[in-house]
Automatic annotation (TrEMBL):
Listed InterPro entries: Acyl_CoA_acyltransferase, GNAT_dom
Organism: Demequina sediminis
SUPFAM superfamilies (UniProt xref): Acyl-CoA N-acyltransferases (Nat)
Protein name (record): N-acetyltransferase domain-containing protein
Domain N-acetyltransferase residues, every copy: 63-111
Length: 141
């Protein structure tokens, strides 16, 4: 039987630091090393700005997805962060967070746009994704 994945929304007082730590751990697990301070600052900064949706997975593993308004196109959502606690594998938490982001941004799916480009802080490529929205009314939920 598949584990029940618990996702809640909205920004709670501890979420900013929890998400920043989780992002740093996920990048470190992926890359082997991370410059933690700038990575954590990026998450804190994004959570302080306009949000379309913050979804936080609480079980069976921690994770989060942050969807924000696109800076260049008013009626598009940008999946800014998606991270799952690297202390395990599988379980579907990442898939559930992506599904939540898509379901709450629009009925369509995120699509890759442009080409992968070097990350501003890390030494790896970053592929942007975006999603055209039916209505450009960002909210804090």
């Amino acid at each position: 039987m598949a584990p029940v994945i618990e996702i809640r929304t909205g920004l709670l007082p501890d979420d900013t630091e929890t998400c920043a730590r989780l992002w740093v751990r996920a990048i470190e697990a992926r890359d082997g090393t991370v410059d933690a301070a700038p990575m954590a600052r990026r998450v804190r900064s994004a959570l302080a700005g306009p949000l379309i949706r913050l979804a936080v997975a609480t079980a069976p593993r921690a994770g989060f997805a942050l969807t924000v308004p696109s800076g260049s196109v008013r009626d598009e959502a940008f999946l800014h962060f998606l991270a799952v606690d690297p202390g395990g594998t599988g379980g579907g938490v990442g898939t559930a967070l992506m599904t939540d982001a898509i379901d709450h941004a629009s009925a369509a799916g995120f699509a890759a746009y442009g080409v992968a480009r070097p990350h501003g802080i890390g030494d790896y490529a970053m592929q942007p994704y975006r999603l055209a929205l039916a209505s450009a009314t960002p909210s804090s939920v």
